[in-house]
Amino acid sequence: MTDPVANPGPGRPPVLDEAKRRRIIALLANGSSRRIAARYVGCAPSTITRTALRDFQFATELAHAERSAEIEALHNLRKAARNERYWRAAAWLLERTNPDDFAQRQPNVATEAQIRQAVVALADVLLEGLSDERYHEILRRLANLLGASPAEWDEPIEADSLPPPLTDGGA
Fold first, then answer.
1. Contact 53, 44 (CB under 8 A)
2. Which residue in 31, 28, 35 sits closest to 59, CA to CA?
3. pLDDT tens-place string over residues 31-48
4. How much is the pLDDT for 8?
5. For residue 47, how many other CB atoms are within 10 A of its CB?
6. pLDDT in tens, 66-86
7. How many CA atoms lie within 13 A of 84 on its CB side?
8. What does each C-alpha distance from 13 to 58, 61, 126 come to in angstroms?
9. How far apart are CA 83 and CA 44, in angstroms?
10. Which long-range contacts (CB under 8 A, 24 or more apart) does 24-31 make?
């Protein structure tokens, strides 16, 4: 395959020549965002994305630069967190890597797990007294809504993974 920068062919020359690509890679490796890198070299962030879609080598270099900056920042954060004096670094890291357990929440804000639990409890109340067939149909749809992406909502789930219908007639 020919290099689109070295041999652009007919039409408009590429916005990102080799020098601009190198600057973008260097900026990303240093922790800049694509938006900042694009502004620095005088293009739109979408130009970087489109160029990466056409050029596998550039895409690979972009990904490597972005990941190496993340890894370096995480390494520095963990290094700081080892020192008691910089306990806030450890707290920040915990809040962002495990928000369900450590992130501060506003009062009266539920976690995803709490919402799922509430929906299941509500479903049990609403579904009591239905036939087994109707119960499992509605429960399957709720399970799909709670645990699947929109594209998967119509896919059936295994009936044996569903809870049994209520039989005690309520409270």
1. no
2. 28
3. 899 999 999 999 999 999
4. 54
5. 18
6. 999 888 888 888 888 888 888
7. 0
8. 17, 21, 63
9. 41
10. 24/48, 24/62, 25/61, 25/62, 25/65, 26/65, 28/62, 28/65, 28/66, 28/69, 29/65, 29/68, 29/69, 30/69, 31/69, 31/72, 31/73
H or E stretch covering 29: helix 18-29
For 105-163, the pLDDT digits (tens) are: 777 777 777 887 887 788 778 777 778 788 778 777 877 776 654 444 444 445 455 55
pTM summary value: 0.50
User: Token digits for 77?
Assistant: 């954060």
| Top-tier CATH class for 18-102 | mainly alpha
The token pair that represents 29 in the structure block: 């490796």
The Cα 78–Cα 125 span in angstroms is 47
Tell me what the pLDDT averaged over the chain comes to. Answer: 78
Q: Residue for token digits 């596998």?
A: 56
Domain ranges of the chain: 18-102, 112-161
